[in-house]
Amino acid sequence: MKNPHLLLIRFSALGDVAMTVPVIRCLYKTYPNIKITFVSRPNFAPLFQEFQKFNFFPTDFEGRHKGLKGVWTLFQELKTIPFTAVADLHSVLRTYLLGFFFSAYGYKFKTFDKGRSEKKALTRRKNKKFQPLIPMVYRYADVFRKLGFPISLEYHEFPEKRELPQSLLFFYQVNDKKWIGIAPFAAHSGKMYPLDLMQQVINFLQKDHLIFLFGAGVKEKQRLEVWEKAYKNVYSTAGKINFKDQLNLMSYLDLMISMDSANGHLAANAGIKVLTIWGMTHPFCGFFPFQQPLDHALTLNRNKYPHVPTSVYGNIIPPDYENAFRSLDPKTVIEKTLEMLK
Question: CB of 36 within 8 A of CB of 55?
Answer without folding.
Answer: yes
